[in-house]
Amino acid sequence: MTRISSASCTVGALLLATWVIAPHLFAADPPGATIAFDTPRAGWTGSFVASNPVTCFSVGGIDPACDRFLLTIQPPAPGREYVVTIRVTAANTSDTAPPTDDIDLFVRNPDNETIAVSGTAGGVEEIVLRNPPAGTYTVIVQPFLVFPAPTAAYAGVAEIAAAPTDERANAYHGARYTPDFVGVPESRPAASSPLVPELKTSFTSVGRGAAEPTIGINPNNTAFYAAATFDFPAPDAPQRLARTVVLRSRDKGASWQPVAAFALSEESLDEPPFTLDPMIYVDPDAGLVDPLTGRRMGRVFSVDLLAACGAQAVFSDDEGETWTTRPGFGCSTPVNDHHTIVTARPPGGLTTAGYPNLLYFCFNRVTDSSCARSHDGGNTVPFVPAGTAFTGTDPDAGSFCGGLHGHLAADREGRIFLPKGHCGLPWIAISENGGGSWRRARIAGHTPMNDHEVSLSVDTADNIYAVWQGPYRLPYLSISRDHGVAWSTPIMIAPPGVHEVNVPTIVAGDPGRIAVLFPGSESTDFGDPETDDETRPWNVYIVMSVDALKAVDPAGEPTFTWTMANPKHDPVHRGTCGPGRCDADDGGSMFDFLDIQVGPDGTFWGTASDTCVGACVADPTAQKLRPGEGVAIRQTKGPLLFARP
Ligand SMILES: [Ca+2]
Ligand SMILES: [Ca+2]
User: How far is CA 421 from CA 396, 415, 441, in A?
Assistant: First the structure.
């Protein structure tokens, strides 16, 4: 084991001593106001004593580091459409030179559920609510990164007005894909749901190529990104091998820096090693306690597949300042491919040693999808076998299905789930005893798929959500409310006008609240390798719902809202992208999957691999990248995945 350490300063050093001030000393002035059509506008000012880059909701939901304003809304007469616009502006945001304050905005409804966020990297934030019911709303302003002199200040304004009539609603209903469905399923535009606000994201290059990039967020809202590209010096090999650099962001994804152990030396053969498959994962229950925030920093795992045996893992308990290296991580067999890891609380009868959770590691052996388990968080004790999730030859599913699978998920009771495109259909393997035994269930029997990637996420009430690329290369959603045994009729969830997608990936928060990320194309010119459009542009789409559980009711219709993460004039890919690996004819590739995760404040983070940069943006025939440029995506506006983060 090698121990790598470094020191660097942290953002959190900013006046965090004042964080512990118990009473709320810096309330808005005035503390509240009422708006109605005859008094449509209210203004206020507020201030802060310190930065709070984590959350406004940690101290019994009323963290005193944040500012609050009580906004009472009196709607017009019934039948009249209206909007309420809430905007906050940092006092120094007009300064010509940085630093300017980064403040963020949240709105809670009269039931004290957080319904909207606006969290860009800047100092001006705006939320527009459509037809909010009468009541008193709480406007919360977070000093994400402020520079008090002596106190940071902002101005707020709220205004009620008639709804604009020319606004394009990005809300829609999916298409329920029953076994007797005929033709291509299409979504239908929906009236914008009350209060579902505009959905937007940032889209930021991480500064390095990234094949199948994964991302993890710790309880401090610090993000980690696995960027693997082909720059490992291998003099004896005809081509360079890939290696992973772990990047970190503490400013909502606006900037990314390699963590110390991964500062690249072109000629170094030692650190980081080459990789056949990169993977980052954050266990939020572990890690050291941050003395500044009182929160755990999570254990950050970066696991790289090696040819010889198992994988090499490095992990960090202090946000990447020091790393522990574990060669032979999860090593129990020489054949070992396409690994996935998850941590989960130990189910009955199992214990851990020096670590809060069990750590699972599953991998493809072609003849099966096999798993191993660590009781000490991967520290020192060898992994023990944790069963066979799928057998490669499976008479129940067809014949020979192979061992390639999707990514592990776990619920709050410690059940673990491994999804898989299994003989052309989406399946799930379920273990309720730490991998001691597995059972398998078919998620849908009438949505053929070519890929192995089915994506799972479990909400805070242990409902499981699955998405996959199915018929007509479109994305399908199904939900299980009984821990994976029974599944709802799939709903095709592509936004109207999106005709082809690949590698959809999902994250859930509170019940019914989901975000799904996928590359997609609006072209219909695909499907025939001889004639399809090898220049067709692809974008990254994000789809959200806050009532997805309606899909379980045969008559229910969840409402989805969507956004495009990349600028429309600058696609993330062109031409062929799957089924399966997103490879263009010229070799430009995202590789096998992308990722989406949720932060502690309920905003989502995602990844993209942008194969179309430089000349490709304007010249559809230009060479694309392999892998694409790593991109981090973070939600800046919209509903949150947690109602009460
Ligand atoms: Ca901001
Ligand atoms: Ca691009």
Answer: 14, 20, 12
Residue 322 lies in a domain: no
CA of 572 from ligand 2 middle (Å) equals 4
Considering every ligand atom, which ligand is closest to the CA of 122? 1
Q: What is the 3-state secondary structure (H, E, C) of 477-534?
A: EEEECCCCCCCCCCEECCCCCCCEECCCEEEECCCCCEEEEEEEECCCCCCCCCCCCC
Which residues neighbour ligand 2 (ion) by CB within 5 Å?
Answer: 570, 610, 612
The closest of 73, 66, 168 to 117, measured between CA atoms, is: 66
Tell me if the bond preceding 99 is cis, omega within 30° of 0: yes
Residues 48 and 186 in one domain: no
Q: Are 394 and 421 in contact (CB under 8 A)?
A: no
Tens digits of residue pLDDT in 101-125: 899 999 999 999 989 999 998 899 9
Write phi, then psi, for 134 (nearest 5 degrees): -60, 145
Looking up residue 77, the CATH number of its domain turns out to be 2.60.120.380
358, pLDDT greater than 90: yes
pLDDT tens profile 191-218: 765 555 689 999 999 999 999 999 999 9
Which ligand is located closest to the Cα atom of residue 101?
A: 1
Return the ∠ at Cα 458 (arms to 343 and 396), rounded to 5°.
Answer: 90
Q: List pLDDT tens digits, range 493-539.
A: 999 999 999 999 999 999 999 999 999 999 999 988 888 999 999 99
- Residue 429's identity, in one-letter code, is A
Distance 126 CA to ligand 1 centre (A): 10
> How confident is residue 14, by pLDDT bands cut at 50, 70 and 90?
very low
Q: What domain range is 618 assigned to?
A: 168-197+444-645
How many domains does one find in the chain?
Answer: 2
415 — phi, psi (to 5°)?
-70, 145
Tell how strand 475-480 and strand 464-469 pair up.
antiparallel
* For the CA of 144, the nearest ligand: 1
Q: Is residue 216 part of a domain?
A: no
Q: pTM for the whole thing?
A: 0.92
- Would you state the structure tokens that stand for residue 603, as one six-digit string? 């905003």
The DSSP code sequence of 369-427 is EEEEEESSTTSSSPPEEEEEEEESB-TTTSSB--S-----EE-TTS-EEEEEEETTEEE
Tokens for 210?
């990234």
- 10 pLDDT above the threshold of 70: no
DSSP 20: G
Instruction: Specify whether 193 is located in the same domain as 146.
Output: no
Of all ligands present, the nearest one to the C-alpha of 637 is 1
Residues 515 and 630 in one domain: yes
**Using alpha carbons only, what angle is made at residue 186 by residues 184 and 191, rounded to the nearest 5 degrees?**
170
- Cα separation, 329 vs 273, in Å, equals 14
Does residue 95 sit in the same domain as residue 182?
Answer: no
Q: Are 611 and 554 within one domain?
A: yes
Asked if residue 188 and residue 155 are part of one domain, the reply reads no
Spatial separation of the C-alpha atoms in residues 638 and 198, rounded to whole Å: 5
**Residue 166 pLDDT greater than 60, yes or no:** no
Q: Give the dihedral of Cα atoms 130, 134, 136, 138; nearest 10 deg.
A: -10
Residues 75-81: contacts with CB within 8 Å, 24+ apart?
A: 75/36, 75/131, 75/132, 75/133, 75/134, 75/160, 76/36, 76/37, 76/160, 80/162, 81/130, 81/131, 81/162, 81/163
Per-residue DSSP letter, 291 = T
